[in-house]
Amino acid sequence: MPEGPSIILMKESLQQFVGHKVTDASGNAKFDKETFIGKTLHEIRTFGKQTYLVFDKSAIRIHLLMFGSYSINEQTKPDKSLRLALLFSNEGMYFYTCSVKSVELEFLSTIDWEADVMSNLWNPEKAEKKLKTNPNMMVCDALMDQNLFSGVGNIIKNEVLFKIGVQPESLTGNLPTKKRKELIAEARNYSFQFLAWKREFTLKKHWLVHTKSTCSICGQKLIKKKTGIGKRRSFYCENDQKLY
After folding, report:
1. Residue numbers of the domain that contains 61
2. How many beta carbons lie within 10 A of that of residue 195, not counting itself?
């Protein structure tokens, strides 16, 4: 599943269409695509793993889910996987194997934009308050909770917990104040590092624990385990990451 930094890169790629009118719309997404023909794309907004194409009275929400993808100015996959194609003067954006929905503009006002770890509106104090209200939540679940850390995915989760020395099955309520603040700060910090490495095409070279077999600190064999409610893969070192 693409994480927040990858969605930022997608937004940047799509930015060329802002200010232009839709000339055609197609795909098997289940909403009235024709209503967007002739409409101007005013803005592209992202919230974690979601992208909003904002028009006059409504928006199109794109979520790439686990296996979604997109392309620009060319259709690269079979029609059956094409959820949405928007054409602008013979150029276009194409979205495949993903969730595509139309939402009213009022819906955007219900989103807690301060929960997006890569947004200028990110509010670490609010994130800390939310963590305090969920003391029995495992930190692996907390980091993956899009209401707490919108944009954080499994790679960021594993790397952040390794960097701050916390095992994924630790409970948020057991974290010392200093460690809780480290968790919040590193979730944002690593997300921007992730973005920089994606731009350089060097992301995997910087992984310290995700998909690795041995600890880069002590050399001990890493634990690979599905953790938390979501049962997502966690990679961690029992020696260098503490269970709180």
Report:
1. 4-108
2. 19
Residue 158 shares a structural domain with residue 183: yes
Phi, psi of 55 (to 5 degrees): -115, -165
Please report the pLDDT score of residue 74 as a whole number.
79
pLDDT digits (tens, 9 = 90+) for 57-74: 999 999 999 889 999 987
Mean per-residue pLDDT over the chain, rounded: 95
Partner residues linked to 227 by β-bridges: 232
C-alpha 22, offset from chain centre: 27
Same domain, yes or no: 124 and 205: yes
**241 within some domain:** no
Helices of type H across 165-235: 177-200
Give which of 145, 57, 68 is closest to 108, Cα–Cα.
57
